[in-house]
Amino acid sequence: MSRPLRIALVCGRALPVSLYGGTERVVEWLARELLRRGHAVTLVGPKGTYLPGVRVVMASDAVSAAANLPADIDIVHAHGWTGARFAVPSLWTMHGNAPGYGFEGNWNFISADHAARHGRRTFVYNGIPPEDVYFSAEKSDRHLFFSRINRAGKNVTQAIDLARRFKLKLDLAGGARIELLTRSAVRREGVFFRSFGEQFRFHGMVGGWEKARLFAQARSLLFPIRWDEPFGLVVIEALLAGTPVIAAARGAVPELLTPEVGFLCESTDDYGRAFAEVGAIDPARCRDYAASNFSAAQMAEGYLALYRRILDGETLD
């Protein structure tokens, strides 16, 4: 058996987060899983960072992250401050889209599509601890949009327009209705004025039980993105809650969904068929599929394999 590793996880925002923060939540889940497997974890991050069982080293930027790194670390895994250069073997995970960035050294991406779009091949899927997600087999008649509503790429505009066309009841979480009027493509599309009516409920920024309830009770998660999603953590959260996903076939999403747990849509007619058929999907099948393919345990296994390859002298492609 390989010896336990001393791993430094670098994150540019304080952990844990209470509401939103996809990258930060992934780092937390990875740290917990590495600890469970007997590895020593050091978390390098800004003031306020704390996770039980983890040694914390404070840093405020890439320079201090590298300067403050303890001498006993075997490998660094950076999820932020990607400009930092460390004196020990290192892995960087890109969580966003950065076309044209010069990826020198050992870089990892979070889906096959994400890696390919950046001219690379190495990827590890994000993973969620299934026990962290509340499951319900009982569904309401309300669909759910759960993304930052003022981010044009998440496409709240189409979500609202689809709900109006197909007479759907739609819950929206990820910002207040007034944010549809902020300076963005969303404002220019005039969707604010189409978002009124009894069928729409805006929940603002939610976490905790309110978030768990929305996911678990939804008839479907509506995810009509219009950008190339690097992964789509919300898709896996919904599936673990037993909620099927109706999504645009963009970015990594086709890697995450099968016909047994959701629908990939390219046209308004595709969405219409999905809304008509989504009730036939088994919630238990959704959870089992996500737990079997996108768990925090599988994510940790993937990263540990990359750590070993790097420590053996390999350069990732």
Automatic annotation (TrEMBL):
Keyword Transferase in record: yes
One example GO MF annotation: glycosyltransferase activity
InterPro entries in the record: Glyco_trans_1
Gene3D superfamilies per UniProt: Glycogen Phosphorylase B
Keyword list, A-Z: Transferase
Domain Glycosyl transferase family: 138-270
Domain of life, source organism: Bacteria
Pfam families attached to this UniProt entry: Glycos_transf_1
Protein name in UniProt: Glycosyltransferase involved in cell wall biosynthesis
Organism: Kaistia hirudinis
